[in-house]
Every structure is written in C-alpha cells, then in structure tokens.
Amino acid sequence: MARSGSAADRPSRVAGLTMPSVPDIASPPPARIAVAPALLLRIVAELARDVRAGSGSAPQVELDSNLERDLGFDSLERSELLLRVERAFGVRLPARTLVSAETPRDLLRAAQAGSASSLPSSTAIAAPLVGQNVEIPDHAATLLDALEWHARTQPDRTHVTLLAEADAGPAAQPLTYGELVAEASRVAGGLLACGLEPGQSCAIMLPTSREFFVAFFGILQAGGVPVPIYPPARRSQLEEHLRRQSGIIGNALAAILVTTPSARAVARLLRAAAPSLKHIVSVAELGTSASSAARWRPGAADIALLQYTSGSTGSPKGVILTHANLLANIRAMGRAVAVAPTDVFVSWLPLYHDMGLIGAWLGSLYYAIPLVVMSPTDFLGRPESWLWALHRYRATLSAGPNFAYEMCATRIDESRLAGLDLSGLRIAFNGAEPVRPETITRFAKRFAAFGFDARAQTPVYGLAESAVGLAFPPLNRGPLIDRVDRGRLAQTGVATPAAVGDPRALPVVACGQPLLGHEIRIIDATGRELPERHEGRIEFRGPSATSGYFRNPEATRGLFHGDWLDTGDLGYIAGGDLYLTGRVKDIIIRGGQHIHPQETEAAVGNIRGIRKGCVTVFGVPDRASGTEQVVILAETRETDPARRQALRAAVAESALALLGAPPDDIVLAPPHTVLKTSSGKIRRAACRDLYQRGMTGAAPRAVWLQVARLAATSTAVRVRQTITRLGESLFAAYAWGLFAALALVALALVAVLPRLAWRRHAVTTLARAFVSASRIPVRLAGASHLQAMGPVTVVANHASFLDGIVLLAVLPERCHFVAKRELTRNFATRLLLRGIGTRFVERFDVEASVAAAQDVATLAACGESLVFFPEGTFRREPGLLPFRMGAFIAAMTAGAPVIPVAIRGTRSVLRDGQWLPHRGIVQVIVTPPLAPEGRDWAAAVRLRDRSRAAILAACGEPDLAR
Predict the structure, then answer these.
(1) Is residue 117's pLDDT more than 80?
(2) How many domains does the chain divide into?
(3) What residues make up the domain containing 660?
(4) Measured between alpha carbons, how far is residue 179 from residues 146, 369, 372 in Å?
(5) Does a structural domain hold residue 876?
(6) Region of residue 53 (left: phi > 0; alpha: psi -120 to 50; beta: else)
(7) Are residues 569 and 606 in the same domain?
(8) pLDDT at residue 625, rounded to an integer
(9) Over the stretch 178-209, which tens digit does the pLDDT of each residue have?
(10) 405 and 368 within one domain
(11) Are both 805 and 941 inside the same structural domain?
C-alpha cells in the first residue's frame, strides 16, 4: 500500500529479525548430520551455473567464497541455495541462515547443526484467537487514546501473537493490551530519565519483536515522536546501512536511539555520524530507570510518526503523520474492507515499513482484531511459513508486495504444502510495488487446490504521504485487469481498450477506488485535469494526507499543488478505478513518445543470461536532439565476448518489440551494478547518475546517429500532440457556444409559447439537438422499459451538470423534473425550468421541505410521471451518494413503479469544478421497473434500497454510502 516504485520481483534484504514457527516440526535428532563439503560445494557451483543461464562458465567456488561478493547471490538466489542444500542432505537449516551465512563454510556449519528435515507433521489449527465482540474507540483522537481504551475495557485480550524463530521456542508469545500499556509506561519513564523532550524524535532500530511494540508506544507515552528505521543487514552491507540511517537520524534530529544490545557497536557508529544522537539504549535498560517528570500528552494534530520513504527515487524524506492522519486512514481502510471482530490478521511485513506498521499493526490495534506477526526473514527463507501461519491461525486478512505472491506461486515445493488450507482468507492485499497480472494468475491457479478464493486477491494503492492506504477495490470483486492498446498509450497517453486477441496489448491491474473521504485526480503537465482513460500525473487529497516532509521545505513545496498532493506516479482512471502505469521520474520521453520502463525491464530480465530483477531502463537527456536516450543497464555474469554479443542482440530485440525502436545504449554490467533500496526497489535515478558519470564503462552512441533516427519521429509526434491540444480547446469553445445559442432559443420559446406541452416539446427537441450537434454520443440501453403504461417515477444518479440535458434528450416528454430549489436563484434557470413544469423541493428548511414533498407526492398521485436525482447533488469524485426518500415516498403514495436509470460518462465529460468539457461517450442504462411493496415507510425504504442497488450495479462507480 506504499507508493509504487519500480517492478521488484525480489525480496528486501532484511536481517536481524526473529522468525516464526510453522506447523509442528519433528524434534531434532541428537546426532549431528553428516554433510560432505565436496557435495555442498558442488551444489553451490551448480546454482552459480544455473543463474548464468547454463553457459558452462562459473567462478571458482571454495568454502570461503563470499556468496554475495564472489558469487553474486542475492536474497532470491540464497533462498534457492538453502532449498537445494536441504533437499540434498535431508536437513532443515535454521531460518536465519538466509541472512547470516556469508560463505559456503557458514552453510556447512549450519547444515551440520541443523535438524533432520521433515514435512509438516500436523496441520492442526491453533487455538482460536478471536474473543468476544468489542466496541471500537470511535471517539479516540490519538493512538494513545485507542490503546488505553482497549486496555481499560479488555486488558487481558490478546493483541499480538508474536511467532518465534522456527528453530527456537516458545512457538508463540502473546501480548495483551494491558501488558502493552504497562510495559510501554516503564519505557516512557526511562526515556524521560534520558531527557526526552515533548515532540522530540526518538529512533527505533529493532527487529520484529515484543520490544518494538513496547518501544513505539513508550515513546508516544513519553511525548516523543517514533522514527522506525530498519536494523542492520549482513556485515557486507554495513557501510550502506550506516550511511542511510545516519541521514535519517540527522534529518529527524533524533536524540535517542532504541535498539538491541547486540547492535550497540553499530549504533555507536551512527552516533558519530549523527550529532543529535545523545543516548543509545535498549528496551530492557529503559525499563529499569524511571523519571517522575510530568508526561506531555499529544493531541490529534500533533505528530504521531515520522515515516521515512524508501528512497527509491532519491534521498529518503520524513513524512509527517499526525494522530488525526493515522486514525483517519485506519478508519477509512477498516470501512473499505468491512473489518469484523471475527477477523484475524497474519503479517510478516517489516514494522519499519508503513504497510506493516500502519496497515497491519496499528489497524489491528484500533479494531481489536488479533494480529499474528512473524519475521520477514522467516518468510524470505521459507515462503511457505507465511502460508502455514495463515492456515494455523485461520487468518482472514493478510498482505504483501507482489514479489511475495510470486515467490509463493513459483518457489515452494509441492511437498511442503500438503494439508494446507487457505479457505479462511477473505482478503490478501497486494501493494507496495506494481502488481503484475501474471503473478495474480499464477498465485490463484496454484492455490485454488488449497481452498484459496481468487476473489480474495486485492490489489491496492497507497503511499506514505497518505499514511499507507489511498485506493481499495470493492469487496469480493477480485482483481480487475484492463488490456489497453500499447501503441496509443505510448503515443497519445490515452488508455484505449485493446482489440480482442491483440498480442501486444498492455495489461494493467486496477488498484481500486479512493477511500471514503479521499479524492484522486489525473492531471497533465500543465495541471489540467484529464478525463477518464487519459494517462497523467496522479494527485490526491483527504484527511490522511501529510502536511509535508520533516525539515525539508523544498521537497514539501514540490509535493503540493494547492491542496492537492502529487504522488509522483502516473496512471489513469477508468470506471472509477485507478490504474497505475509508472513513476513520473521514471518515464522516458523519446521523440514525444512516453516509454514506461517496468515492462521492458521485466522482459529483458527473462532473457537467459541476464539476472532477473537486475535490469533498469532509464532516460538520459540528449542536448543535441532535445529528447532522451533510452539506456538499458542489465546485469550478467557472462564474460565470454561471443556470448555477451549474443546477449546484447537479444536485449535489443526484446526492447524493440516493446518500444517500437531500438534502445540507444545497452550496458551489460557485472552483478550488483544495478542499485536498489533496502526493500529491493530499483533506484533508477541513482543508476542514471552512475551511467552519466561513466562508472559502468559504457560509451554513448554518436550524436548524429541519434538525431537521424529520432528527428522524423520526434517532429511527427510533437505536431500530433499540438493538434490534439488545439482540437480539445476548439471542441470546448464549440460546445459552450452551441449550448449558449440553444439556451437562448430555449429561453425565448419558453417565454412565448402558451402551452406546457409545446414548451416541453421545444426544450426536449433543443436538448436532443445539442446532444447530436455537440458530438458527445449518448447511447441508450433498456429504452423498452420507458414505454410502460401509466405514470412512473424515474430516479437517476447525478454526476454532472450535463445529466439534466441528457435525460431531457432521452426520456419521454410527459415526465416532470423535480429539482432543488437553489436552482431558482438564477433568473435564466428559473425561467427555463418552471417553463417546462419542473417542481422544486427545499433541502435545508425542514418545514418547507415537508410541504414540497407533499406537493410532489400529490402530483404523483394525480398520475404525473416524475424524474428525480435522489442524491440531491453531485461531487467531483466518482461515487454514488446516499439517496433521499422523497422520490420513493411519492412513488409509494401514487402506487407507481420506479424506473432506476444509471448515467455513465457525464462526470468525465464535464466534472464538477471544471468548465472545460472533454470528448467522451455517455451511456444511459434504463433498468427494469420496480413496483412498491406496500404503502408504509418501511416499503418506501425497501424501494429506495432496491432502486439504489440497481443504479449502483449499472453506473460503474463506487458506493459512497458504505
């Protein structure tokens, strides 16, 4: 749910984290297991050859060869190596081996000390974690309020079940609400004794552990601001870790660092690089010292958390999140997924990442649903451990990035899944990185046999600047994949649906609709809002939105456009759903064509001999041509010149098929050239900088060749773009001119024609003329339902000022419109609407509203057909608002059927707050009539609900009444 970055089909490199237990494992035998060093070295060498695409050449493997530096094994390859060693020797390696083993000799020792391998001997379900139903602290203003409310009302209720390492005990450690408050209070006293001041930052560098939860709320209780940072990884990554963490601590002005005793040496180095850091302490040490100083209690507007971004596109920035931001996001997400007391959340996500910290932990804390947490390292070492935790604890909710589902779908032996049951999982969030359609398909196909419901797959979108969540899909819909014309998207920025069977169609996964109270819009480079299916920059606003970046005014200024926040992502909206296409800074513009790097990176990564997930595509400015060069940087272990030349040709061919033109430069680099963040996201900006500084050894192509190849394409595309923009402006001017002319004619006719029927016929004719002449196609479906004999009540959704004109054009002339009285304030609209027999109702004056409703009901009882917009108003963001009762009381009074009508497309053509209409197609769907089922209030309510359900199903927009 965090901001999507580059496609990263590999796990983050995380170390120093505790690991959970999965189904019961046989006890280890007393004797050490015999492991032959020669066989172990052969296994390592075979994997090295495999990842080099079977070229036959591989580095010399010795017991003291470094797995990362000498052999180039990353986290995924280490995971595969552990699996092969376990198979070969019949041993179960300690899960920490994934990050602790630096050499084959370390693997040898771990294998000799390991336990005999066995398949899960029990598929027993753990004791139920769900307790009595509880109320939710709806009135809590801070996280502390929410925690303390639960601690007062249910102190013994288990909040977190912490799974220990797979090779250690106890298997599960519970933490209750009462224990969390008490232990956090002792930590708060220790922090105050260290001199922590109100509002001062305090860094937490702890693994997934009881200490993390206690430290986080201890800091809040002491009046401080938690700053989670990730623990140190392998020794080989110590320098990079120190560099990044010292930058975070320095920017946050953290005075205290809470960490483990074993990390004290690393922490001292951090203190040398961050002058603000005064104390380095552990949770145990804080619990033994206390201060009697008064504790400052934060309010809703105070900072609750500094969430530092991953830095995939630049330096890490501290996102300011207040208590109000976090609670608004948690409440909106809980409503979107219909959180219930029967839910159980299982998570392996790191607690320093917003998806694990806010989405999994703090959300579970607020709603008092049991949370089962396990170590990220345990998942990376054995992905099946996550699945077995879902099984054992009957999880209903869980989450992970796309790579996690890919690992489960492709890297787990079938023998390790026997007896697995995933039927209880109702929501499996997929976020934090681009969601791949092929991963969705593979995961659903493989785990269908284990009870997994494909509809549980829930692609979502979010970013740290919106706490964590921003867009969620409707419940139980399942993944929605849009197939668009690749060429048109690249050349025009329009996501046109691809022809059936088009082999080059680009699949894009829907990431959902804005959370309640939040808005999303798409804008172009000039800040103009775009209609549906037009790609542009994604902006948002809402109660979860940050106020900016901590001590970074320049970045904060770049974040805001008025009251809208720039996500830095590209995408489009279709049918109310958000579709992501890339990052703004990652997009390459060559000859006017927009090139998204993610798909090309994935395709090149599938070439044998190229390291999968170690490819980056970026643009480099070319002053001579005024556009950008396309550079592909790909890692390979190949050293043979002939083989490298063949690889270069294969990369060029793959890129040509996707881009429509060859890349300007292809750089084949050794392993670990492509730079990544701690979570495995490609740092394209850093790779571009590496290339421009000549540190990859690549030579740029001749300028004259680039200019010759791009000149024709660039000129044609720029001319086409200019013509398109000019055409849009001319269309808007024409549409408004046409409307003004026909409106003047309508006003004149209404003023002079003596009969109501004549005036209705004239205005209806002019409305149809406008629809026809404006080149906005209106497609009517279900017209036969309008031919019902006798009076009817038509109810329609309301999305735009155009709705009234559209209904005038398609509905029978006998219908009376019912409108809000505010429209009579303008002379022209009052004259026109009264002239065609419109009835007005009061929305705000209670007595007048009741009287108007009675008049309308009387009119319906006299046999008149009425047209209502029961939402009463419309808003700029997509969504169906709650319905008012007036239309349905009138229908019930008259005993007339209700005909629900869904209008689609008018919001995109002319959105509220905008006066520049866009071209688009409008659909009017007339659904079957609904007869009243009684004459009382309850019957009217049922009629309202049935009508609204029919419109909701046909209008293609989210339900804003949830």
Answers:
(1) no
(2) 5
(3) 588-701
(4) 15, 16, 16
(5) yes
(6) left
(7) no
(8) 41
(9) 999 999 999 999 999 999 999 999 999 999 99
(10) yes
(11) yes
Report the C-alpha gap between 277 and 487 in whole angstroms. Answer: 53
- Domain termination residue (choose one: 537, 566, 583): 583
**342 touches 367 (CB < 8 A):** no
Look up residue 866 and give its amino acid. Answer: L
pLDDT band, residue 215 (cuts 50/70/90): very high
Say whether pLDDT at 2 is over 90.
no
> Same domain, yes or no, for 495 and 443?
no
Provide the pLDDT for residue 292: 66
The neighbouring-strand residues paired with 175 are 160
Only one residue has tokens 């169906």, namely: 880
Residue 30 is assigned to a structural domain of this protein: no
Q: Give the span between the Cα atoms of 547 and 325, in whole angstroms.
A: 9
Q: Which tokens is 421 given?
A: 């049951």
Asked whether residue 137 is assigned to any structural domain, the reply reads no
Region of 161 please: left (phi>0), alpha (psi -120 to 50) or beta. Answer: beta
For 315-327, what is the mean pLDDT? Answer: 91
- Helix (H) / strand (E) containing 901: strand 898-904
Same domain, residue pair 737 and 791: yes
Question: Could you tell me if 588 and 594 are in contact, meaning their C-beta atoms sit under 8 angstroms apart?
Answer: yes
Question: In terms of domains, do 410 and 551 share one?
Answer: no
Q: Are residues 878 and 930 in the same domain?
A: yes
- Can you spell out the DSSP letters for 207-261? -SSHHHHHHHHHHHHTT-EEEE-PPP--GGGHHHHHHHHHHHHHHHT--EEEE-G
Average pLDDT, the chain: 80
Cβ atoms of 878 and 868 closer than 8 Å: no
- Confirm if 362 and 330 have CB atoms less than 8 A apart: yes
Sheet strands (E) in 575-609: 577-583, 588-590, 593-595
Give the integer Cα–Cα distance in Å for 608 and 610: 6
What single string gives the DSSP state of each residue in 509-573? EB--EEPTT-EEEEE-TTSPBP-TTB-EEEEEESTT----BTT-HHHHHHHEETTEEEEEEEEEE
pLDDT at 30: 38
Which residue type does 515 have?
Answer: L
Angle, helices 402-410/384-392, rounded to nearest 10 degrees: 100
pLDDT of residue 716: 56
Is there a domain that residue 377 lies in?
A: yes
- Quick one: tokens of 219? 């800091």
Report yes or no: 654 and 613 within 8 Å, Cβ to Cβ.
no
Identity of the residue numbered 874: F
List, in sequence order, every residue forming a beta bridge with 529; answer none if it has no partner. 523
Q: Which letter, b or e, does each residue of 574-607 get, where b requires 16 or more Cβ atoms within 10 Å of its Cβ?
A: bbbbbbbbbbebbbbebbbbbbbbbbbbbbbbeb
What CATH number corresponds to the domain at position 694?
A: 3.30.300.30
Co-location of 447 and 571 in the same domain:
no
Name the DSSP class of 473. Answer: P
Backbone angles phi and psi of 688, in degrees to 5: -60, -45
Over the stretch 559-612, which tens digit does the pLDDT of each residue have?
A: 999 999 999 899 999 988 999 988 777 767 665 455 778 778 888 988 988 988
CATH number of the domain to which 89 belongs: 1.10.1200.10
